[in-house]
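Encode chain A's predicted structure.
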Amino acid sequence: MKTPLSTDIALSRVIPVRSGIAVYNMSWILGDSLTIDNNIQLIITGCGLDVYLLNDNKSRIICRLTCSSEGRVAGTIEDLRCENGAHGCYFVSLHRPEGFHLQFVRRQDDGKDKPKGNASWDTITIETASINTPLSWFIVDNLTCTDASLNMTSYACVSNHSRCSDALRSFFTTSYYPGYLCQCDNGYQGNPYIPDGCSLDQGYIQVHSGGNCTRSCENIIVPYPFGLEEGCSAREEFLLSCINSNLQISNSWNVSRIDVNRGVIDLATMESSSVGLGGLSNLFTASGKDTYSVHFAVAKLSCQQAKQNMTQYACMSVNSTCLPVNLDNDDAGYRCMCSPGFDGNPYIKNGCQDVDECLSTPGICRGICHNTIGNYICTKCPSKTEYDEKTKQCTSGKRQKNILLGIIIGLSAGFGILLLGISATLLIRKWRKNIQKKLRKKNFEKNQGLLLEQLISSDETTTDRMNIFTLEELEKATNNFDHTRILGRGGHGMVYKGILADQRVVAIKRSVAIKQGEITQFINEVAILSQINHRNIVKLFGCCLETEVPLLVYDFVSNGSLFDLLRHNSSSSTSISWGDALRIAVEVAGALYYLHSAASVSVFHRDVKSSNILLDANYTAKVSDFGTSRLVSIDQTHVVTRVQGTFGYLDPEYCQTGQLNEKSDVYSFGVVLLELLLLKELIFITESGSKLNLAGYFLQELKVRPARDIVAAHIYEGATEEEVNNIASLVELCLRPRGDERPTMKQVEMVLQSLREKVSNKLHVTPKNDKEEMEPLLGPRAEASSRSNMTINLAKDVNASSPYSQGCFSLEREFMATAELPR
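Encoded structure for chain A:
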């Protein structure tokens, strides 16, 4: 039985959480004349709390609210998908018709890492779900309807067609509530507490607006009795809106289809058990499962009552009939439907049209079908014909034989064509495979594969480390160079992650096109690089020469680049330590010194930058990417070449002269040292909004303030002022505009190693010897006999040996003028 005296309520409480207080209480108790029809559905949000429900001096825990150290954003009342207990959000349904009392107790193990200013840690939020809770009320001046009817002067049910009902038994308890309420009789609606307040539904009005009404929203048809404009719908509840190409009913539900003959409206798919039909008129009742569909009634009248007033009777079409609709609130309703054999809109004149069953349902007759108004007639097939189940028609026996023969011929021809197609496909695949095999062989010879094989076979040390891979091996290793295997892209090629047949994880580099004249040089380069064996240089396993551009196979380094590490640390609360920064600098300097000091040939890297310094699983630095490196004989001091590299790391003297030497790598290494010291990007934006080059910024600032004010605060905290001054002086030397004013990588490595030994001795830790024995290809490396005050002495030596110390022009001033450049 329905309870007309009801209203929807929405509860929302926010309890501030204060330091030192562990228990919080929240009560919501109804009066004697109020009760809740359904469960109370609450969303509770908070962090680090146990939630208890108190009842009759007893308590039971209903949920636990936990959060990560980052906290969470509190849920809204529309958030019905919060997982129980997860992320500080809990959805709970309480069986409390008279109200409830909740208690929140802070757990001791939560809140240790509470972030400042996070609302989800500082508050407890309790609010009802998106559908408001129905709250019923009743009259309590008399216990029952019988008692109330004894005194008609105070009797509340004064309207005709009204009746009295005792207060309902609680749905959640076995007790009765004292009091009574009034209701309109079935088929009537309105206010039973005033004279003539209950009346039949008069809301449906026939509209005759001609063709001036819009009948579609985007691609959805809006048939009468529904409408989009005032005066175009039969009743107010059927007035729809077209908002942003979405057809909506009650301004809350999107409509996907309206079928007036079936009396169904399809809404957006939703969980009916969770949200019901909130916002819709009580003329609609739920139906369907796959899509959220609702049946509708045109009025709260029975068919018999509706036919008593033909001016408001909805079934306007001659070939239509009235159907009863059972609404959710036990009210009787009705709708219209076209009679059997007719289809269309029963709510307009001549809206139901005859259906030609012979066309709409082939095979409805096992013979000849004849359509009639509202029905159809079947007759037998003519003589010498019979009904064909496949064609759904009457056909002759001869025709059936011809059809069977045609089927046999068609199947034979089809199998023949299929066999021919398979044979052609196999031949084409074999032909393509031969072409690919010849092309790979041609590329192998063009890329000097025979020369590389001779170089490998002539050097026993190279044979153990250098491999010539086939293209098929690398395709299997990279899943045909799948885009998900891409590790990075650069100006010199693309790098893929691969897993070889022996389960080694490698990085495979596909370089950009190189000139045919450079192939021999490339092969010599590969042969020499394969002999490099240094713990701080990425190992070259081999190459593949069967492609247009040779592929290089390197050892896979798992922890990304130094650039990624610095960028992550600059944006996070923790930063790289002074000891780790110094260790990485020593490792990179040692690797570059190793490359420059080869006995038979030197290697100028030419692209030293933080993104080309990789970090393995132990965060050991590995110098990589020799795509632009140049090999130089031992008697050469420089090579003249086209300027290549990365802006910000490029040696200014190399940019002007095109002469590449080992001091060019020294300058680039100085910029990497700056990145480790300042923890800033190469081109960064100052507080004033201007863009500055990192090297130019450092050299300018060093002239006007001490180094301790320039380096990153985290670095300065881990180092002494003397250590910061020493390494700042070393950076200043490396960034000298003229190459002959800069130290060699050997001198740089010695200064850094000495500084690291001092730092390690200060911490009473013996540093691990990062130097390895060089391969026989390299000569012995001289060690410094004394490293004290090395940075100061190094600066003096460089300045004293420079013929440009009293130079006629200043390239440094020229470089400083370009320090502030756009990215």
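The first strand starts at residue 6 and ends at 9.
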